[in-house]
From TrEMBL:
Pfam families membership: NmrA
Gene Ontology CC terms: nucleus
Family: Belongs to the NmrA-type oxidoreductase family.
Assigned keywords, A-Z: NADP
Annotated protein name in UniProt: NMRAL1 protein
Coiled-coil annotated residue ranges, if any: none
Domain NmrA-like: 1-305
Entry annotated with the keyword NADP: yes
């Protein structure tokens, strides 16, 4: 049976890269569907032009008359890329986590009710199992969502992400100018693990390619996706190389010492930064082997910057 693949978040960083890689891997041999709240946005329009069918609805709409359930059922998906949407709470710890978990459970209900879904590849966060221990409700909720996925009757693979290279073009999480790189690490010497959304897309495409009506190679696996451990200084030098900058590129943290000292503002964000500083993502050698199996040629940070083409400030 030909695959009918439903992609959540397809107008954003993760889902957008998943859609691109699925289009490239399957071409016309699979039918793609993208969930969006807004069919007129430039990203949604572009997907439609590429032959992706739009499925309109809001994951957070909990009303019985929510149209998303019927729209998903109409698509009759066999394969699904699922992700949840985190909002950072201001002042109150974990304020949006109940909502995030409820939306994820609602989507699992909708997908189960279709009766057509064979396999779900879901993105999560590396280290989410340490969320409770290090007081990070935004990580703990990902662990809860993983448990919800595993409790259903559909086959699954969890792809746990480290910090996204793609944050560097997201104005809330980073920024690029001719002379500076803004990122989530707290200073230029601090090392963190990174992965590109393109590698997530390749991993999802591999999982789906290796599944059929009778077998599913990666069912039941939880895999950390991490391609490079880098300091801010190394990221700046890769960026300088790609843009051919003569001048030195300076690293600027999103959360400088002043914001970090005000733990009462965005407490989830601050707790996550402390975790990165003190503990770091739990990436070990076996993770690297699993990752390379799914993504044989992962992108380096330099590959990622090159991929931006015209979007790099010149
Ligand atoms: N940034 C990182 O380093 C990092 C690392 C690991 C995990 N994560 C996780 O990644 C997730 C965010 O992914 P992203 O960076 O790809 O997000 P993004 O670029 O901000 O895009 C969000 C996507 O989700 C869709 N969306 C948002 N709310 C929706 C709703 N209520 N109903 C339906 N669709 C909705 C948007 O679609 P429309 O606007 O078209 O409706 C858009 O396609 C978060 O859960 C975060 O915890 C991030």
């Amino acid at each position: 049976m030909s695959k009918r693949i439903l992609i959540f978040g397809a107008t954003g960083k993760q889902g957008g890269a998943v859609a691109r890689e699925l289009l490239s891997a399957f071409g016309g041999s699979a039918t793609l569907y993208a969930v969006t709240r807004n069919s007129t946005s430039p990203a949604a329009q572009k997907l439609e032009q590429q032959g992706v069918n739009l499925v309109i609805g809001d994951m957070e709409d909990a009303r019985p008359e929510s149209t998303l359930k019927a729209a998903i059922a109409d698509a009759k998906p066999t394969h699904v890329f699922l992700m949840s949407n985190e909002k950072v709470g201001t002042f109150s710890k974990g304020s949006f986590c109940t909502q995030e978990l409820a939306a994820a459970n609602r989507m699992l209900d909708f997908l189960e009710a279709c009766g057509t879904v064979q396999y779900i590849a879901m993105s999560s966060v590396a280290g989410c199992h340490q969320g409770a221990r290090y007081s990070m409700p935004n990580f703990k909720v990902k662990e809860d969502i993983e448990a919800a996925l595993k409790s259903r009757g559909m086959k699954w693979t969890v792809l746990r992400l480290v910090t996204l290279m793609d944050n560097f073009v997201d104005k809330e999480l980073g920024g690029l100018t001719r002379t500076s790189v803004t990122g989530l690490a707290n200073n230029s010497a601090m090392e963190m693990w990174y992965v590109s959304c393109r590698d997530l897309g390749v991993a999802v495409a591999t999982c789906f390619a290796k599944s059929s009506d009778t077998s599913c190679e990666y069912h039941g696996k939880t895999i950390n996706l991490a391609s490079q451990k880098l300091s801010g200084a190394e990221i700046c030098s890769a960026y300088a190389k790609v843009i051919g900058a003569e001048a030195k590129v300076k690293y600027t943290p999103v959360m400088g010492p002043c914001l970090m000292s005000m733990g009462f503002i965005m407490p989830d964000f601050v707790a996550m930064h402390r975790y990165w500083e003190k503990v770091g993502y739990p990436i070990e050698a076996p993770d690297q082997e699993d990752f390379k199996e799914l993504v044989p040629e992962p992108w380096t940070i330099e590959d990622y910057f090159r991929s931006l083409g015209d979007r790099i400030p010149m």
